């Protein structure tokens, strides 16, 4: 008897035109590190009292799909998932300038296949949207990104989908890029940052109705963009940005070793909401920990946007 092995697993997707409906066509292979996609069901129990104290009724109730997909971010392969996280579409005009993706209002969903290739079993998840996207940048690691998915339904089959291969692009790392922070519209270079983690959260949730155990649509909230930046404590500048409630601009670029595939995360107007400077022991440098929130910038018309290389 063979057991499914992690190393023989695959993940692929196709964009849905209608929520929860898998369209015809090839699925696109999705490079990934780990995932926790699954189907869950609520339990519905009877409420009657029995003199022997034994429950008679226990049924399955509402169901939904969901889980995390953890990846090393790279050029091209995750652009559709970035669109889903941003509720937007890449704008590739004008020609010759980087494409831009801003926060929008249109939900994009996928059908995702989880393949256990060695035992030819394939789980299919429908109506899957990016509820939140968390990005982590730190020295000596790839740019790790977690897409937290929420969806509607799922099934399992012994027949897999026809696949289109992923690109051969290399992952982004923490060395092939840059970071700058400064006053709004005046960011200046900085080389003292030791880590940056940020999240865009859409708060996707199923909308259950009478007559169906699967949601007919997903509801969502505001696009909340928050993060935490850590930096060496070398002067008062970053601390004063918190103390004086100075609104700032933060720009972070990442790239791969080819230096030809730069993606830039732009926070045109952030507010730093803390500046802790703990002492961690007898050795080591002191680090400033700065949580921040991105808020609407009238000039850019958004609180967060992403640039990629021109695709035209």
Order of helices and strands: EEEEEHEEEEEEEEEEEEHEEEE
> What is the overall silhouette?
globular
Q: Proportion of β residues?
A: over 45%
- Radius of gyration (CA) equals 22 Å
Q: Report how far apart the termini are.
A: 51 Å
- List unreliable stretches of 5+ residues: none
Strand pairing plus helix content: what structural class?
A: mainly beta
Residue-averaged pLDDT: 93
Number of helices: 2
Main pleated-sheet profile: 19 strands, mixed
Query: Total number of β-strand segments?
Result: 21
Helical content stands at under 10%
Query: Total domains, how many?
Result: 1
Show the helix and strand layout:
Blueprint: E1 9-15, E2 27-29, E3 34-35, E4 38-45, E5 58-72, H1 79-86, E6 99-102, E7 110-116, E8 121-137, E9 144-151, E10 153-157, E11 163-164, E12 173-183, E13 186-189, E14 193-201, E15 205-206, E16 218-219, E17 224-232, H2 237-243, E18 248-255, E19 263-272, E20 287-294, E21 305-308
Commentary on this structure:
By secondary structure, the chain is mainly beta. It has one domain. 5% of the residues lie in helices and 46% in strands. It has helices at 79-86, 237-243; strands at 9-15, 27-29, 34-35, 38-45, 58-72, 99-102, 110-116, 121-137, 144-151, 153-157, 163-164, 173-183, 186-189, 193-201, 205-206, 218-219, 224-232, 248-255, 263-272, 287-294, 305-308. It has a 19-stranded mixed β-sheet that branches. The longest helix is centred in the N-terminal third of the chain and has 8 residues, at 79-86. The radius of gyration is 22 Å and the shape is globular. The mean pLDDT is 93.
């Amino acid at each position: 008897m063979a057991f499914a092995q992690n190393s023989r697993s695959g993940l692929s997707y196709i964009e849905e035109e209608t929520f929860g409906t898998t369209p015809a066509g090839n699925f696109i292979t999705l490079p990934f590190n780990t995932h926790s996609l699954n189907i869950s069901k609520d339990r519905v129990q009877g409420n009657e009292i029995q003199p022997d104290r034994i429950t008679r009724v226990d049924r399955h109730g509402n169901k939904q799909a969901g889980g995390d997909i953890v990846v090393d971010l790279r050029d091209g392969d995750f652009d559709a998932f970035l669109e889903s996280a941003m509720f937007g579409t890449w704008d590739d005009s004008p020609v010759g300038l980087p494409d831009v993706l801003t926060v929008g209002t249109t939900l994009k969903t996928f059908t995702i296949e989880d393949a256990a290739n060695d035992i030819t079993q394939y789980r299919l998840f429908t109506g899957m949207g990016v509820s939140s996207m968390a990005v982590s940048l730190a020295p000596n690691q790839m740019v790790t990104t977690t897409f937290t998915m929420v969806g509607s339904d799922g099934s399992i089959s012994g027949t897999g989908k026809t696949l289109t291969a992923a690109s051969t692009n290399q992952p982004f790392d923490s060395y092939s890029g840059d970071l700058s922070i400064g006053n709004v519209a005046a960011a200046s270079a900085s080389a003292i940052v030791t880590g940056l983690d940020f999240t865009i959260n859409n708060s996707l949730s199923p909308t259950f109705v009478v007559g169906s155990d699967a949601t007919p649509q997903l509801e969502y909230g505001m696009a909340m963009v928050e993060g935490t930046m850590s930096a060496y404590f070398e002067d008062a500048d970053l601390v004063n940005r918190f103390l004086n409630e100075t609104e700032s601009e933060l720009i972070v670029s990442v790239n791969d070793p080819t230096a030809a595939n730069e993606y830039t995360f732009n926070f045109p107007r952030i507010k730093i909401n803390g500046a802790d400077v703990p002492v961690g022991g007898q050795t080591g440098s002191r680090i400033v920990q700065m949580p921040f929130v991105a808020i609407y910038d009238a000039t850019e018309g958004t609180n967060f946007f992403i640039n990629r290389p021109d695709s035209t």
